[in-house]
Write a structure and sequence with these properties.
This protein has 415 residues and is α/β, with parallel strands linked by helices. The chain has helices spanning 8-17, 36-50, 102-111, 124-136, 148-151, 161-173, 183-192, 216-221, 243-256, 271-277, 289-297, 313-320, 331-336, 351-363, 365-379, 384-397, 399-410; strands at 22-26, 54-60, 70-72, 80-89, 92-99, 116-119, 140-143, 177-180, 197-199, 230-234, 261-265, 282-285, 301-304, 324-328, 344-346. The strands form two sheets. Strands 1, 2, 3, 4, 5, 6, 7, 8 and 9 form a nine-stranded mixed sheet that branches. It is elongated, with a radius of gyration of 22 Å.
């Protein structure tokens, strides 16, 4: 991994330059959709716009949207938006992948050339964008946001894992730089054969996600008394999230604490089956904004059973909300949780350890409260502004950027 660091000096240089750049972000998913990629892009775009940069978004048209091709600045997330044809993503009916020709993108970029292009997803739209950028000699970077090759085994398509891994290697090695969210993912991508990577982590909005939004009325609606435990899960209700582990863990916990409740915030293909089997669970559905923050803050213990997430923004959101997180030593937990200090984490193969950690928190309120306090304090250090600074520096100062410009000047095709 070629690891770039950013400090106060780099930040001052970036801000002092005062240069307003045109950055194009290509993604199959974008707000108001709810998932980790869309959430990350929301804060990234807000940060870039606040720095005065021009941000153009290229994404698939969603089912509810009109046939118009271009939208102008919505919610201050972008300067301009181009929508391409969208088709349903198998297994993720609410999401779509984009279809367009590289020539269409090339014509856009000929009229208004970006300084840099960031491709956040590796679907057909991403492939077209990388091809068009390489032809034009525009610096193009990519993000490793989703473990699609690992997801295949949860959808009865494990035989495709090696093929998807090879595809990911081909896709990312066609970009100058791949941004990865954790050191562990950096090792994973190296094992896949992806060559040039740099660490770009995530921040958390501690003004939105805060313990101050705890709502006793909401807890009463969940059927809880003041000293009862609210065990929270936030995320997609889908097989790759390892929800069976969360259910097994909660049932063990409830055996010792009968008044505990499991609250699941989110939606997905497993919701119907879970609701049929566990009608006593609280299915809060999809929540956004302040309502989501209120749900976080009203919990006590947060279960993050996933073993496939590349990061898991919900972990840091739970920490910022003052929850005691139980997770496996992976993704955001591997970076930000110190066992028995600001959270609890188990080794990836240790399902029993995961359950034991949750039971300890439920049994020992002093430990739980100490961890919750420390989690909030540590989350306050995870600033989105610093992550946006780092993103800006990485995509604009990677060594291969100069190579791309030199190739363009020589008129050589990189395809």
């Amino acid at each position: 991994m070629q690891e770039h660091t950013i400090g106060n000096t780099v930040t001052r240089l970036s801000q002092a330059s005062g240069r307003r750049l045109h950055i194009t972000i290509v993604s199959e998913t974008f707000p108001p959709e709810i998932n980790g990629v869309a959430n990350t892009l929301r804060y990234l775009c807000l940060g870039l716009r606040r720095r005065g940069h021009r941000v153009t978004i290229i994404r698939p048209r969603q089912r509810h949207e009109s046939t118009g091709e271009v939208s102008e600045a919505g919610e201050c997330l972008f300067s301009q938006e181009h929508l391409v044809t969208g088709l349903p993503l198998p297994g993720y009916g609410e999401l779509r992948f984009g279809i367009t020709r590289p020539g269409y993108l090339a014509s856009l970029w000929k009229r208004r050339r970006p300084d840099a292009i960031y491709v956040a997803t590796q679907g057909p739209l991403g492939v077209a964008a990388v091809s068009a950028a390489r032809r034009a000699g525009i610096p193009v970077s990519s993000g490793f946001h989703t473990n699609f090759h690992a997801y295949s085994r949860y959808y009865g398509a494990g035989f495709l894992e090696k093929l998807l891994c090879a595809y990911g290697r081909w896709f990312h090695n066609r970009t100058a730089l791949t941004l990865v969210p954790t050191r562990k993912i950096a090792r994973t991508t190296a094992d896949m054969g992806i060559h040039s990577t740099s660490l770009w982590s995530r921040g958390v909005d501690c003004s939105r996600f805060t313990p101050h939004k705890r709502d006793q009325t909401l807890r009463q609606q969940w059927g809880l008394q003041p000293n009862d435990r609210a065990v929270l899960y936030v995320g997609r209700l889908a097989p790759e999230k390892n929800l069976g582990m969360a259910v097994a863990c909660f049932e063990r916990l409830r055996g010792l604490h009968p008044n505990a409740r499991l609250i699941l915030v989110g939606d997905g293909p497993m919701r119907k089956r879970l609701a049929e089997r566990h009608p006593d669970y609280v299915f809060a559905g999809t929540r956004r904004g302040e309502d989501l923050a209120r749900h976080y803050a009203s919990g006590d213990i947060f279960l993050f059973p996933s073993k496939t997430d590349t990061f898991g923004n919900v972990v840091t959101e739970a920490m910022a909300s003052g929850l005691a997180v139980v997770a496996f030593d992976d993704a955001a937990a591997s970076e930000h949780i110190r066992h028995e200090d600001n959270g609890m984490k188990a080794r990836l193969p240790d399902d029993e350890g995961f359950v034991d950690h949750a039971l300890r928190l439920a049994d020992q309120p002093t430990l739980m409260n100490r961890i919750r306090t420390q989690a909030r304090l540590d989350a306050l250090e995870l600033d989105w502004a610093a992550q946006v600074d780092q993103f800006e520096y990485l995509i604009l100062n990677h060594p291969q950027r100069n190579h791309s410009n030199a190739v363009q000047q020589q008129g050589i095709s990189l395809l």
